[in-house]
Amino acid sequence: MKTAQEFRTGQVANIDGSPWVIQKAEFNKSGRNAAVVKMKLKNLLNGTATETVFRADDKFEPVTLGRKGVTYSYFADPLYVFMDEEYNQYELEKADIEAVLPFIEDGMTDECAAVFYEDKVISIELPTTIEREIIYTEPSVRGDSSGKVMKTARLSTGHELQVSSFCEIGDSIEIDTRTGEYKSRVKA
Q: Where is the Translation elongation factor P/YeiP central domain (predicted)?
């Protein structure tokens, strides 16, 4: 058993007999009030989401999830299909992979992990760092080199993020999939 304040974002807790993934957890201790943890939760069985507040010392059973290596195969509206080494296919809806969707593209070769709960695929995890190509960004402003200057760039999936000012169209960049932020430009 773990207390509510020990759970972190991405972990799964058994609350009232159902597995809930913690999408956001904020610890709060103010004045004379008891310490509380405000959590944004998503039920892994039916997909419902809720926000609730627990006392910091409320106890829940952690849930262990299974993982298996898969690669993205294709999009069959409205399902995203992933395949493992034994050619087993796993179909997920857009809502199940919303967090990684900005980085899913046709032809990607990144080794992903399918997350299982009781033999049912519930989500996909991408590698911590992935490489993607910039398809559009504004040209750099000459002389604007003081400090950490960032500009907006668009990937082939339509996702936009902030990159360093020296990045150009056609450059490959590394992205941290946990935060969705630019890490560095890949040297050719």
A: 67-122
CA-CA distance, 179 to 129, in Å (whole number)? 10
Confidence of residue 144 (pLDDT cuts 50, 70, 90): low
| pLDDT tops 80 at residue 188 | no
How many other β-carbons are positioned within 10 Å of the β-carbon of residue 53? 12
Rounded Cα–Cα distance for residues 69 and 49 (Å): 27
- How far apart are the C-alpha atoms of 104 and 93, rounded to whole Å? 13
* pLDDT tens string 33-53: 889 999 999 888 777 889 999
Matching residue, tokens 């179909």? 91
Burial class (CB in 10 A: 0-12, 13-18, 19+), 5: middle
**Comparing C-alpha atoms, which of 158, 154, 146 is closest to residue 182?**
154
pLDDT digits (tens, 9 = 90+) for 60-101: 999 888 899 999 999 998 899 999 999 999 999 887 788 788
- Tell me which residue of 179, 84, 90 sits closest to 128, measured CA to CA: 179
Helices (H) and strands (E) in the chain — how many of each? 0, 16
**78: preceding bond cis by omega (within 30 degrees):** yes
